[in-house]
Amino acid sequence: MVALGSKSDLLELGNYMDSLEVHESDDQLIIGLDFGTTFSGIAFAFTNANQPEPTSILDWPGLEGFKQPKVPTILSYDPNQKTSFTWGAQKHKHSKIEGMKLLLDPGQETPLYIPEANTAAELKKLGKPATDVVTDYITAIYRHALNRIETKIPAEYLKMCQKKFVVTVPAVWSAKAMNATLLAAKQAGIHPVSLIKEPEAAALYTLRTLQDKALAVGDAFVLCDAGGGTVDLISYEITALAPTLELKELVTGKGGMAGSLGLNKRFAQAVQNLVGEDQFFHLRKETGFEEAMKQFDKTIKTAFRGDLEEDYYVNFPRAKLDDDAPNRLEANCWNMKGADVKRIFQPLITDIERMVEDQVNLVRVKRLNEGHPKANEIKAIFLVGGFGSSEYLKQCLQTAHPKIQVIQPTDAWSAIVKGAVLSQLPEEAAITSTVSTKHYGVSANALYDEKEDAGQPTTVHKYNGKTRVEKMYWYIHRGEDMRRDQKIIFPFKRSLADDYTPSKLIFSDDLLECSQDQAVKYPKTGVTSTNCRMTADLTSVGKHHFHKKTALDGTPYYDVHYDLVISTKTAIMKFSLEVDGEEMGSIEASYE
């Protein structure tokens, strides 16, 4: 049982972590966290080693005697003391909160074939926001990981090491969800922290393990990260093998909510259809149902190979279910056939096959358009993640793509967390460029053009009297190749009265995004949406950087020019502010 005094204890933990980061050593400890929908894992590496190698935490509370790189993403709070909870594989006496990760991005569209979960209802009953619940889980798993690392090395050395953290996020997540993940991690006391997209991390680890196995510059591959909640597709091309492995992303990534958690939900729905709503209402409250869910999760869905006649026996101990011989339910035991299991799998398999097919076609079209000598050749489809270890999923993808080898790399379940650690190690494999999944820009006043802007609402400029119209200025386009060392500059101009006060030098603008293939010319509800609100503070910038002007009526005013600079080195955009080419002032992004 873990007990946290929400705010004060978290603050104390943060202060403790601050004290750990006053070092005399230059040695670094890289800690990666793969915070998953159904399972989470931690890996680490010390940079002072000759060849740093990511190592997974394999020992977990509640799994004594077993070694595995991940632990269930589950919390169970004591209803009488809500700062006290059990987590992971520990024995849970109270209602469990599962799938909490998905609540960080509620805007993600859930497929119709996945029955609705009650996690949000559990949180409402608990009275805690999703971010705070995630903070509790990350705090618990991180504290445990530090304790395990401490058993391998002297405790004093661990305290002296500089610590650097990296957390994985789905590629399909919104900026708001990524920011919520950062917030939860920081509240848990882990900092400095950066984010990496899950399939990107998996690609780094997978290609590193296969680097000396017949890979060549120009080879393209598709990586399918099939996890518990989400399935992400990203494609890469090898641009260099030496001195380090370098990859570039080829086309816009795809993804969706087709993870293996959907199989569990569909199994529960199949049980409800089997026994009827009345019996299911009572069954779901009994331990027999929980045992059946475990049996499906741990045994049946991992063992299924596609044989429609194979028998699987699901037991509901002490459930007192009515026998139903025609549907093979007798003595609280359901004899499932392979055909029953296939019906549970099929909608998710179909969805994943469609996403992989789209990605393969996009890669071929792009390389054909570029005149690439290997345009029609895709080296492999790499299948990673928990669901990615399914032999049935592999068979289905191999059948759909007989000319492309489908590979489940060794250690596929921990590929993401180990790749996250690799991303922070010097002289390791690197992603040199990515592809923008959306258009990004701002709306601003432009001179009105009677022919081009007819029918659009207009305003009149306060000082020069010219008619203006609100237009979109796109600085990043969907499908655009974006180098990791690239700086993207958004220029802004404001006009201020001659007697402006310092508060007038704080400006707010919305960074807008658009997912359509073709970006729109004007802001449009339902088509353009806010990525984040950017607040630029120029109060520390000297007046000599501003341009003094005179209005038509002789009134003096200032034009203030500044640049918003965006870096895309990590999963979430980083912002800075420049005036006359120098970094000045400050910029803050808020996600609501």
Structure characterization notes:
With 592 residues, this protein is an alpha+beta fold. The protein is globular and about 95 Å long. The protein contains 12 helices and 32 strands. It folds into 4 domains: 2-196, ATPase, nucleotide binding domain (Nucleotidyltransferase, domain 5), CATH 3.30.420; 198-255 and 352-432, ATPase, nucleotide binding domain (Nucleotidyltransferase, domain 5), CATH 3.30.420; 261-345; 439-590, no CATH class.
Radius of gyration: 27 Å
CATH class of the largest domain: Alpha Beta
Number of DSSP strand runs: 32
What is the global morphology? globular
Largest sheet: 8 strands, mixed
Low-confidence stretches: 5-24
Q: What is the rounded distance between the termini?
A: 33 Å
User: Which percent range fits the helix content?
Assistant: 25-40%
Number of helices: 12
CATH architecture assignment of the largest domain: 2-Layer Sandwich
Strand content: 25-35%
Oligomer: single chain
Task: Please name the fourth-level CATH homologous superfamily of the largest domain.
Answer: ATPase, nucleotide binding domain
Predict the CATH topology of the largest domain. Nucleotidyltransferase, domain 5
Task: Provide the number of structural domains.
Answer: 4
Short description:
By secondary structure, the chain is α+β, with helices and mostly antiparallel strands. It has twelve helices and 32 strands.
SSE layout and pairing:
Elements: E1 2-3, H1 6-20, E2 28-34, E3 39-46, E4 55-56, E5 71-72, E6 74-78, E7 81-87, E8 97-98, H2 119-126, H3 130-150, H4 155-160, E9 162-169, H5 175-187, E10 193-197, H6 198-209, E11 220-226, E12 231-240, E13 246-249, E14 254-256, H7 261-275, H8 277-283, H9 287-303, E15 311-315, E16 329-330, E17 333-337, H10 338-369, E18 380-384, H11 391-400, E19 405-407, H12 415-422, E20 430-435, E21 439-447, E22 458-460, E23 467-476, E24 481-483, E25 487-497, E26 506-514, E27 528-537, E28 547-550, E29 556-567, E30 574-579, E31 582-583, E32 586-590
Parallel strand pairs: 2-9, 9-10, 11-18, 13-20, 18-19
Antiparallel strand pairs: 1-7, 2-3, 3-4, 3-5, 6-7, 6-8, 11-12, 12-13, 12-14, 15-17, 16-17, 20-24, 21-23, 21-26, 22-23, 25-29, 26-27, 27-32, 28-29, 29-30, 30-31
